[in-house]
Amino acid sequence: MRHFDYARAESPQQAVAAHGSDRDAAFLAGGTTLLDLVKLDVMQPQKVVDINGVDLTTIERLDDGRLRIGAMVTNTALARDERVVEDYAVLSQALLAGASTQLRNKATTGGNIMQRVRCPYFRDGVSACNKREPGSGCAAIGGVNRTVHAVLGTSDACIATHPSDMCVAMAAIGATVEVQGPEGSREIDFGDFHLLPGDTPAREHALEPGELITHVVLEAPIHGSRSAYLKLRDRQSYQFALASSAVIVRMDGDIIREARVAMGGVGTKPWRAPEVEAALKGRTASEALFADAARLAFEKATAYSQNGYKIPLGQQAIVRNLSDLTAA
């Protein structure tokens, strides 16, 4: 049995102070990732700071139209919030497509952003994994890499996909992550929060030691837009995406005036596709246009031994979503 220190916090300031800059400390929210990996002995925190007493459960509309979400808002509460359902349907759908009802009732907004990869070589505790043990290698590159391994944003050090559905929707919407740490408060653009593996896959996000996510602020909704999340997976229930797309479009008749596209299941981080958005903007909606634009998203893709199918599947996820939204 491993021993660790435990502390409870009732404010972000208390949480940050209790955590300090200790890289071996961890914040505990819903616990759907942390407790799982502690049981597997993959994560071994020397200190656990419980933030369930911290009041970060509010969702509020800001004066500029943005939506500010407390980090402790559960996935269930966020998915069912009337403002999210009405203005950010893509986010509500993405949340409801992830995990089970029981997990959504516990999982938090901040925790979802911070969740770790589902690569079995990372989680088994013994295989070569640069994310778990830097410098040990990546067993997935030459191993079983069909489902939870990426074709975009990969490196010789890591090919694991980011597992979140929620984050794909937030990448399409655009957001800011508010954090508080030993050096004070700051904001991080959502697109910059998750890091590509490069040569340092053990560093997954832009947080500094001891920083706590307090809120996520979504950009104001695009007036007159339609949005949807499409998740393709081996089975409908409780399964991670093989490929997914979060799409937001604003139409003027048959003309696409604005488009935002992000993908999941295919990238090492929630994958925004600006090249697809640029190819769609100002064009007449058609299957041919969607297919051409979707191909652009994968021009720099790298297929591995078992996951090359994700390239055409990812393209289909974009095309099908765009077709449904523009036909509405």
How is the topology of this model organized?
Layout: E1 5-8, H1 12-19, E2 25-28, H2 34-39, E3 47-50, E4 59-61, E5 67-70, H3 75-80, H4 82-87, H5 89-96, H6 101-106, H7 109-114, H8 120-123, H9 166-173, E6 175-181, E7 184-189, H10 190-193, E8 212-218, E9 225-232, E10 243-252, E11 255-264, E12 271-272, H11 274-280, H12 287-297, H13 310-327
Parallel strand pairs: 1-3, 2-3
Antiparallel strand pairs: 4-5, 5-8, 6-7, 6-8, 9-10, 10-11, 11-12
Helix pairs in contact: 5-9, 11-12, 12-13
Structure commentary:
This protein is α+β, with helices and mostly antiparallel strands and 328 residues long. Among the domains are: 5-53, 2-Layer Sandwich (Uridine Diphospho-n-acetylenolpyruvylglucosamine Reductase, domain 2), CATH 3.30.43; 225-327, Enolase-like, domain 1, CATH 3.30.390. 30% of the residues lie in helices and 21% in strands. A hairpin with a 2-residue loop joins strand 6 and strand 7. The model has no long low-confidence stretch (mean pLDDT 97).
Q: Give the total of beta strands.
A: 12
| Helix content percent band | 25-40%
| Strand order within the widest beta sheet | 4-5-8-6-7
Q: Low-confidence stretches at least 5 residues in length (pLDDT < 50)?
A: none
Distance from N terminus to C terminus (CA atoms, Å) equals: 56 Å
